[in-house]
């Protein structure tokens, strides 16, 4: 039985991008084309910490084996309450623990006696709608309900996958594989959120074709599944691969590669990484132009980098990696991140791509009007660090980066916290995956960047922020040692020098957890920006 990280522990990302407080406050205004980020738990609903009773209720009510209901949910969402977006043209967004889409969601909701919106946002309603739809399909197929193996064609039908090989992969190596292996999801306190005991069963469904799978032409660890959806890159420097784009499929791995290899879809990516990291598919050669991002390049969305490419189709000079999963999920499996980092290292090494967050970039950063993937919880700092480690280009010895998104931090030596009312933002030029901002007023209520040192050391501290005209010209950063004594302070002008590391000073710290705090106690009428701190 495998144990997985709790996907319900992280708080939902706020949809409101204005500072809040007892008085009217100035706001950090993102560009008009920057969308609000999706909330993993969705607005207006709270995801229960114990899901087993909900699965049992839905399964019993609609006469669906509870093991099957849990396995389908795990295969589709890793038991996360997702709120999908349409990653590909013609793709309906998926919702809830069951990743219900389109007609399946509408019909399931009607059968369960709930509204479509309830089926999208409420955990129990979503499970009941999913169970009701499975039950209807089973009735139509005249399935013997007590025979777990006989449900396999219904599982394939609900997946929406039409490619026979992908259907077989999804049934045998995803849904029925987790039934055979079992899984458990723990809460942070160690209690069980949901569990699936192993059930030995062989699906009554055509097995994946037994044949030697060709290795990817550019990445030997990949399976070669060629897509017809590509063309030649333009000649000259604009056609040379210089960036890697990170996507989420907004669905499962098998549904993703089957869609991207379908000529009718009109889309593709160079690679797809499965949820566990155990398999990678290559669909398009790196030298060819994949069809994975529908935007022309705008350097203002990417920290001002590579402005000479402004106005050029991003597909010309990028290599796209899709990942089974959703932009709204609260965490990503360690195996998937590791496999993706190895792949990105290989791509970057072979194409001389710079290994930083401006050249290995989120899809949502370059196409913010319609995309947010891979979402706010993609662990950018650790991901880039892994890529550099696999490529033998590690960060300087002893350097510690504390990001405002805790998912990006090495918890053994970096942590971030907030006191008081702060809002999250995503305007272009941020480090990692977003930042926090708050109105200036006569209150400290700081953002705290903590870092661990094994011995007393003198270190230089840098900060990163997104600049803007409403930012404080006197944002106060204060450094403390592990004993809580102040060791230095500096006020910086956050209206300038955005999108890069700015040195705050060099200070003497002690052994243990030291910290740098960004206070709000300065001239009112502005906002202060808490993005990232580097200790070197």
UniProtKB/TrEMBL annotation:
Record-annotated N-acetylmuramoyl-L-alanine amidase domain positions: 227-375
The reaction(s) this protein catalyses: Hydrolyzes the link between N-acetylmuramoyl residues and L-amino acid residues in certain cell-wall glycopeptides
InterPro entries assigned: Amidase/PGRP_sf, Amidase_domain, CBD-like_Golvesin-Xly, Lysozyme-like_dom_sf, NAMLAA_amidase_2
CDD domains named in the record: PGRP
Transmembrane annotation, as ranges: none
First-level EC class: hydrolase
Residue ranges, annotated region (Disordered): 23-48
The keyword Cell wall biogenesis/degradation belongs to this UniProt entry's keyword annotation: yes
Superkingdom of the source species: Bacteria
Swiss-Prot/TrEMBL GO biological process terms: cell wall organization; peptidoglycan catabolic process; peptidoglycan turnover
Gene Ontology molecular function, alphabetical: N-acetylmuramoyl-L-alanine amidase activity
Pfam family membership, one: Amidase_2
PROSITE patterns documented for this protein: PROKAR_LIPOPROTEIN
Annotated signal peptide: 1-24
Keywords assigned: Cell wall biogenesis/degradation, Hydrolase, Signal
Coiled coil ranges: none
Matching PANTHER family: N-ACETYLMURAMOYL-L-ALANINE AMIDASE AMID
Protein name: N-acetylmuramoyl-L-alanine amidase
Taxonomic lineage: Bacteria, Pseudomonadati, Myxococcota, Myxococcia, Myxococcales
């Amino acid at each position: 039985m495998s144990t997985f990280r709790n996907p319900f522990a992280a708080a939902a990302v706020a949809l409101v991008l204005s500072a809040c407080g007892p008085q009217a406050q100035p706001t950090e205004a993102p560009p008009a084309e920057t969308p609000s980020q999706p909330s993993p738990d969705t607005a207006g609903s709270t995801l229960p910490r114990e899901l087993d009773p909900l699965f049992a209720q839905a399964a019993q009510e609609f006469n669906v084996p509870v093991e099957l209901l849990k396995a389908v949910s795990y295969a589709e969402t890793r038991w996360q309450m997702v709120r999908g977006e349409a990653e590909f043209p013609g793709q309906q967004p998926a919702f809830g623990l069951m990743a219900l889409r389109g007609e399946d969601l509408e019909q399931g909701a009607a059968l369960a006696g709930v509204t479509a919106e309830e089926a999208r946002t409420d955990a129990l309603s979503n499970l009941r709608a999913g169970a009701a739809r499975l039950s209807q399909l089973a009735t139509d197929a005249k399935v013997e309900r007590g025979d777990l193996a006989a449900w396999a064609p219904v599982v394939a039908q609900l997946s929406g996958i039409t490619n026979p090989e992908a259907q077989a992969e999804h049934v045998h190596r995803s849904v029925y594989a987790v039934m055979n292996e079992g899984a458990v999801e723990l809460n942070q306190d160690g209690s069980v959120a949901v569990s699936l005991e192993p059930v030995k069963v062989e699906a009554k469904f055509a097995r994946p074709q037994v044949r030697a799978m060709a290795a990817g032409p550019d990445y030997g660890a990949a399976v070669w599944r060629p897509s017809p959806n590509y063309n030649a890159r333009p000649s000259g420097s604009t056609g040379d691969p210089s960036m890697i784009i990170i996507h989420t499929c907004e669905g499962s791995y098998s549904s993703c590669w089957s869609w991207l290899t379908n000529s009718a879809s009109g889309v593709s990516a160079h690679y797809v990484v499965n949820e566990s990291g155990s398999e990678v598919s290559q669909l398009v050669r790196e030298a060819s132009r994949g069809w994975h991002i529908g935007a022309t390049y705008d350097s203002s969305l990417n920290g001002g980098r590579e402005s000479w490419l402004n106005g050029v189709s991003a597909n010309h000079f990028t290599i796209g990696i899709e990942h089974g999963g959703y932009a709204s999920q609260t965490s990503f499996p360690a195996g998937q991140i590791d496999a993706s980092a190895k792949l990105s290292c290989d791509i970057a090494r072979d194409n001389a791509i710079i290994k930083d967050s401006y050249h290995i970039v989120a899809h949502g950063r370059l196409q913010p009007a319609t995309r947010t993937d891979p979402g706010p919880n993609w662990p950018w700092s650790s991901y880039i660090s892994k890529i550099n480690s696999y490529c033998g280009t590690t960060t300087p010895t002893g350097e510690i980066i504390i990001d405002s998104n805790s998912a990006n931090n090495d918890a053994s030596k970096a942590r971030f916290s907030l006191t008081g009312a702060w809002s999250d933002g995503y305007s272009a030029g941020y480090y990692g995956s977003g930042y926090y901002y708050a109105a200036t007023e006569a209150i400290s209520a700081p953002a705290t960047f903590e870092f661990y040192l094994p011995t007393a050391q003198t270190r230089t501290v840098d900060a990163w922020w997104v600049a803007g005209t409403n930012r404080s010209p006197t944002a106060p950063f204060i450094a403390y040692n592990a004993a809580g004594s102040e060791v230095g302070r500096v006020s910086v002008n956050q209206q300038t020098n955005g999108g890069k590391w700015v040195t705050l000073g060099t200070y003497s710290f002690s052994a243990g957890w030291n910290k740098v705090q960004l206070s709000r106690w300065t001239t009112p009428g502005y906002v202060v920006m808490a993005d990232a701190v580097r200790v070197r």
